[in-house]
Amino acid sequence: MSDDDFMQDSDQEEYDFEYEDADDDEAGDIGIENKYYNAKQIKADNPEEAIDEFLEVPALEEEKGDWGFKGLKQAIKLEFKLGRYEDAVEHYRELLTYIKSAVTRNYSEKSINNMLDYIEKGSDDAKAYHCMEEFYSLTLDSFQNTNNERLWLKTNIKLARLWLDRKEYGLLSKKVKELHRACQREDGTDDPAKGTYSLEVYALEIQMYADTKNNKRLKALYQRALTVRSAVPHPKIMGIIRECGGKMHMSEENWKEAQSDFFESFRNYDEAGSMQRIQVLKYLVLTTMLMKSNINPFDSQETKPYRTDPRISAMTDLVDAFQRDDIHAYEAILRNNPDVLSDPFIAENIDEVSRNMRTKAVLKLIAPYTRFSLSFISKQIKISIPEVQDILSFLILDQKIPDAKIDQETGAVVINRADDHERLQALETWTSQLNSLWQSVLTNADGFRVEDTARLHASMMSSGGGYGQLGLAGDVLPSPELRKLGGGRAKRDWKGKSGIAKAFSRAL
Known about the structure:
Layout: H1 3-18, H2 20-42, H3 47-60, H4 66-81, H5 85-95, H6 105-122, H7 126-142, H8 149-165, H9 169-182, H10 195-211, H11 215-226, H12 235-251, H13 255-272, H14 276-290, H15 313-323, H16 327-336, H17 344-366, E1 371-373, H18 374-381, H19 385-397, E2 404-407, E3 412-415, H20 418-444, H21 453-462, E4 469-470, E5 476-477, H22 480-495, H23 498-507
Antiparallel strand pairs: 1-3, 2-3, 4-5
Helix pairs in contact: 2-3, 2-4, 3-4, 4-5, 4-6, 5-7, 6-7, 6-8, 7-8, 8-9, 8-10, 9-10, 10-11, 10-12, 11-12, 12-13, 13-14, 14-15, 14-17, 15-16, 17-19, 18-19, 20-22, 20-23
C-alpha cells in the first residue's frame, strides 16, 4: 500500500468517526425525502392519499425546513385542484409561517408567486374566487412587515385582477389608486424603477373602463400608458392595452386606428403565447370588413399561419364572402356558425358589416330597374321587408338613389332617373326636327306629286320608323325614295337640318 493510499484511508476513517452524528441526521433526511417523493409518485393516480402523505412530511422534521415547506406546497395545490378550498386556506396559512426563518427570502418569494399563479389559473367558480381572495389577504398580511415591496405589488395586482374578473369595480377602483401611488415617487411622478408594475396597473384600469364603457377615461389612460418608456413590459400586458385601445377606436368608428391596435395586440399575444390571440385575430378580421378593405388580413407574415386554423375558419369565410360581395354566402356562414356571435363585441359590431353587405346587394340588384316592389328585393336577398324599406330609405337620403319614391300602400318603388329624362328630351327634339323635315319635303320639294304621298309614307315606315337610315358615322341619311322624290332641293333642305343627326345621336 502506498503512502498516499494509507493517508486517504486514514482521512476517510477520521471523517467517518468525526461526523457519525451527522449521518444519523442524514438518514433522517433521507427518510423525509423518500416520503416526499413517494407522495409525488402517487399524486396523479391517488391524489387524496398523496395529500395525506405530503401533510405527514412537516411532522417528520424536528424543525421547520425545506422538506416541510415543499410538502405543504404540494398538498395545497392538490387540495385546491380537488375543490377542498377550506383545507387549502388552512394549510396555506401554515405554509406562510415557514417564510420567516425556515427558507430563504428569494426561495419563499418565488414559491409564493408560483402558488398564487397556480390558483389564479385554476379558479373557475365563486368558491374558488373566495379562496383566492383569502390567499391574497393572508399573503399581504404575512409580508406586511418584511419590507418586500416587490411581492406586495405583485400580490395586490393579482387581487385587483380578481376583482376585475368578478366585476367588483368599486373595490378595484380603490385598489388601482393605491397601486398607482405605490408606483410613484414622492413628487407624484412615475417611478422609472417600477415602470413594469405601473403598466400592469394601467392595463387593469383600462380594462375596467373598457368594461364600463367609460371611453373618456379610457382614452386618457390609453394614451398615457403608451408613453411609459421606462418599462420592459410582458407582451401580454401590451396585448391587453392594445386590445382595449382597438375596442375604444371601434366605438368611435375609427376603423383604421382600430385595425392597427388589434394587429399590435395580436402580435403581442402571439409573442406571449396567450390564447387571446385567436379572439383578437377575429376582431382584426371584423375591422377589415368594417373598413371595406379589399386587403386580406391573412396576407401578413404574422397572421398567415392562422389562415387555416379551424378556430377562426368562420371569420375567414366571412371576410372572403364580404370581399366577393356574395351576400348569400355571407348570410349562410352567419346562419351556420352561431358561435361567431357568442362574443359580445363581435355581436355588437357585426350588424354594421351585415348592413353594408345588404346595402351593396340592394344597389346591385336594383341597378337595371326604374320600378320594383319591396317584396321582390326581400325575396332575392332573403331579408325582411321592413329592413328592405329601411335600407332604401337610407339610400334615398344618402343620394345613392335620388328621385326615388316608396309607395307605402302598394310596396312599390319608382325611380325617376336623370339620365332617362335627358334621353327623352333628346328623343323629343329629334322627333320635332324630323317632323319639320317632313313638312319641308312635302310642301316645298320641286316636282313632288301629291299622289305619291302614300307610297312615300309606306317606304319611310318600312325603313324602321321611316324617316331615314342610320349612317356609319351616326348621321341620319334620307331614304332612296326621299332622294328620288325630293330632288335637289330636298338634299339642300336635308343639309340644313344638321341638328337632327346630333339630337338623334344624343338620344341613342
